[in-house]
Amino acid sequence: MKKILPLLLCIVTTIISAQSEAHLEKFSTLEPDLWLGIWDSAHSNTKLKIDTLSYDDIPKAIDFRGTVVEALQWEDGIGDNLLIQTVTGHFNWKDYEDNGIDYMVQDKAELYAYLFTKNKEESSYQRKWKIYDYTECFGVDWYIGFLAKATTITDVDEDGISEISIPYISVCRGGMDPSSSKIIMYEDTEKYALRGATMIMCGSENAYGGDFTMSTTVQHNAIFKTFLAERWDSIKCEDSMQF
């Protein structure tokens, strides 16, 4: 027994040390931004001067949650615009029973997108809108995030007010089902949306998924209806997505 105790202490010390080193490595590499290349500059309006911002360039008075994956700034007929897209990454949350006492620990991840604007008469940015979504899952494949090279800033109706289109997907599955997919678009404070599913095994005779429904606002705007349908076709295939 005397020989076993030192051995056990050595094992425990090694495990604790390894855990501490892993946590220190995470802490030392913790960054406020990921810069995943969310903006699709090729399909955005070339007449708008759109600049990417680093984390330090974002005004300190602006309030947002999550880790920044893209920050863009430009001017249109409304004024100076600042778009910030963020994700939280995975974390645990307590899924309580109806009795409010018992719970199960589940997995969760969130994403946010914010538009802040400032006109010539204003000295600071004001939040115009916020997109918030999440996925809650347990024990299967799960994810929520923006698509790379997919967010566009356009003016397809040429009224001087930019449209911001933000595609993203959310996943909670245990097999080969399509992911939930959305394109949320704003022009000023008016919201337009396509909601549906990604396409699996694209280009084959066994392809499935890829359908969507339109919000009423899209149905009643022929220009935006055509534009968003084309955007959906360009991003619906899941086969090439990495997450």
Automatic annotation (TrEMBL):
<dbReference type="InterPro" id="IPR058148">
    <property type="entry name" value="M949_RS01915-like_dom"/>
</dbReference>
<protein>
    <recommendedName>
        <fullName>FG-GAP repeat-containing protein</fullName>
    </recommendedName>
</protein>
<keyword id="KW-0732">Signal</keyword>
<feature type="signal peptide">
    <location>
        <begin position="1"/>
        <end position="18"/>
    </location>
</feature>
